[in-house]
Automatic annotation (TrEMBL):
Residues in CSN8/PSMD8/EIF3K domain copies: 62-188
A GO term for molecular function: ribosome binding
InterPro entries: ARM-type_fold, CSN8_PSD8_EIF3K, eIF3k, Transl_init_fac_sub12_N_euk, WH-like_DNA-bd_sf, WH_DNA-bd_sf
Biological processes per GO annotation: regulation of translational initiation
Family annotation (Gene3D superfamilies): ARM repeat, domain 1, Winged helix-like DNA-binding domain superfamily/Winged helix DNA-binding domain
Organism in which the protein naturally occurs: Cylindrotheca closterium
Pfam families according to UniProt: CSN8_PSD8_EIF3K
Record protein name field: CSN8/PSMD8/EIF3K domain-containing protein
GO cellular component terms attached to this protein's record: eukaryotic translation initiation factor 3 complex
Coiled coil ranges: none
Length: 219
C-alpha cells in the first residue's frame, strides 16, 4: 500500500500521468479500508486521469471517491468532485445513490439521509465503508446542529442522528454537546450559535440550517 508521503511525491512530479492510475486506485482502497487518511488531492488526480482516459475509468473507484468525499461533510469536496464525473456515470449506481445522499445532506434533510445511505449498493469496499461510517456521519451532523443552535429538543436531534435516545447522543461524546437537560440538548456556546441566538423549544428548523450552511460553504 502506498503511503501518503509517496503519493505526495507522485503528485508533485506528475499529478495527471496515466502511469499513476494503479497507485492512486490502491490509495483510494486504502482510504476506504481506514488504512490511510483521506487525501483530496490524490482522489481529484485520479478523477482527472479518468477524464483524460475514459476507457480506463473504474466506476467502483469513482463511487468510493464520492463516498469518501461525502464523509467529509460539511466539506463541499463531493460537489467539486461531481464536476469531474461524467453525467452518464453520475446516473448509474452506485454513484447515483451516493450523489443523492450528498444532496440530502446539502439540504439538511437528515432524516431522509439515513435510509438513503443504508440503501447504497456496491462492491464490498463501498458497503463496508458505508457500514463503518455511521458514527462519523452522526458526529458531522451534530457539528452542523451545534453551529446553528444553542439548544434543540432531544427528539429532533435523535431524529437527525438516527438514534433513539439522549443516551445514544451522549455516547457520541461530541465536544460541542455541553449537556442534556430534560428533553433538550444544550450545545457549547460559540460565536455562530450565540450570534444567531436560536433556541428552539418545539424542534429544529432544518431549513434554517441549510440556509446557514450554504452561506458558510460559499465563504
Amino acid at each position: 500500500m502506498p503511503t501518503q508521503q509517496e503519493i505526495e511525491k507522485l503528485l508533485q512530479k506528475s499529478p495527471y500521468s496515466a502511469s499513476n492510475q494503479a497507485t492512486l486506485e490502491a490509495y483510494v482502497d486504502a482510504q476506504a479500508q481506514g488504512q490511510a487518511p483521506y487525501y483530496q488531492d490524490a482522489n481529484r488526480s485520479l478523477l482527472r486521469i479518468y477524464q483524460f482516459s475514459s476507457q480506463s475509468a473504474d466506476p467502483s473507484k469513482i463511487a468510493l471517491i464520492l463516498m469518501l468525499a461525502l464523509l467529509e461533510y460539511p466539506s463541499t469536496d463531493i460537489l467539486a468532485f461531481s464536476y469531474l464525473v461524467p453525467a452518464r456515470t453520475q446516473k448509474v449506481e452506485p454513484c447515483a445513490s451516493v450523489l443523492k445522499c450528498a444532496k440530502l445532506l446539502e439540504s439538511c434533510k437528515f432524516t431522509e439521509f439515513w435510509p438513503a445511505v443504508a440503501a447504497i449498493e456496491g462492491d464490498n469496499l463501498l458497503k463496508n465503508l458505508v457500514t463503518n461510517s455511521t458514527q462519523k456521519m452522526q458526529s458531522a451532523i451534530l457539528e452542523v446542529l451545534s453551529l446553528t443552535y444553542k439548544s434543540a429538543s432531544v427528539a429532533k436531534v435523535s431524529e437527525a442522528l438516527n438514534v433513539s435516545s439522549a443516551n445514544a447522543i451522549t455516547k457520541l461524546s461530541h465536544p460541542n454537546v455541553e449537556s442534556v437537560q430534560g428533553d433538550k440538548i444544550i450545545f457549547v456556546a460559540s460565536s455562530e450559535n450565540t450570534k444567531r441566538n436560536r433556541v428552539f423549544q418545539e424542534g429544529v428548523d432544518f431549513g434554517a440550517i441549510a440556509s446557514m450552511m450554504a452561506k458558510v460553504t460559499a465563504e
